[in-house]
Amino acid sequence: MLEDEALLVRRVAWRESSWVVHLFTRAHGRIALVAKGARRLKSPLRGHLEPLHRLHIRWRPGRIGMGVLAAAERHEALLPEARWPEGLAITAAAAMLFPEGTEEGFAALEAALFTCAKAQAPSAYVAGLWTLCSKAGIAAAADACWRCGARHDLVLAEHGLACTRCGTGPSWPEAASRALAGQTAEAKAVELALALLASIFAAQNLRLPKLGG
Ligand SMILES: [Zn+2]
After folding, report:
1. Angle at 66 (CA atoms; ends 62, 67), nearest 5 degrees
2. pLDDT digits (tens, 9 = 90+) for 12-50
């Protein structure tokens, strides 16, 4: 039997009454487990297998195939309820960026949800996503040309930030860099930050999860 701290990233109905749960664990990487009978009203697992909460789990690893979840205990939420829509979309993004076999998902999602919880409201989603991308190693600087490192006259080019000598696109104001840090309430800056994140995801052949979708 193994045990660890975990964050739920996906829950898929399996057979009549079970779930297959995908979890990031602190020390065992991303794992998928069968939660037998967990959809039954009386299951002790029911009510504990929720995203955005710190979980403590015990499981029997599978000799062949999936392991089996033996116990799960739900602890505190990682962000306030008002941020759950952002938190769920960030969790969905983490599930894409850290597929099975990766080790860093837990730390990355924990940090992203923490960033999201602290950020100014309109920039909470982009700030959380930016933290995820940084941890995944697919984000470059938030305030410099990705090609030459210049820090002035930045634009949002097709493949990331560029200075006006290295690329073309809509101008990238300082407020957009602050949006990625969760420090602005300017809607226009948040929109630009989201466009940059969408292009980063597109470069990985991924689509940015929609907020509340
Ligand atoms: Zn440049």
Report:
1. 50
2. 999 999 999 999 999 999 999 999 999 999 999 989 999
178 CA distance to ligand 1 middle (Å):
20
Domain stops at, among 44, 77, 110:
77
pLDDT digits (tens, 9 = 90+) for 56-108: 999 999 888 899 999 999 999 999 999 999 999 999 999 999 998 889 999 99
Query: Structural domain of residue 171, as residue ranges?
Result: 81-203
Tell me, in angstroms, the distance from the centre of ligand 1 to residue 179's CA: 21
CA 200–ligand 1 middle distance (angstroms): 18
CA of 160 to the centre of ligand 1 (A): 11
The answer to whether 152 and 98 have CB atoms below 8 angstroms apart is no
Whole-number Å distance, alpha carbon 197 to ligand 1 midpoint, is 19
DSSP 3-state of 54: strand
Q: Identify whether residues 63 and 167 lie together within a single domain.
A: no
pTM of the model: 0.94
Measured in angstroms, how far is the CA atom of residue 158 from the centroid of ligand 1?
13
C-beta of residue 64 within 8 angstroms of C-beta of residue 104: no
How many angstroms separate the alpha carbon of residue 199 from the centre of ligand 1?
A: 18
CA distance 5 to 7: 7
Report how far ligand 1's centroid is from the alpha carbon of 132 (Å). 25
Query: Is the model's pLDDT at 211 over the cut of 90?
Result: no
From 58, 77, 96, the end of a domain falls on 77
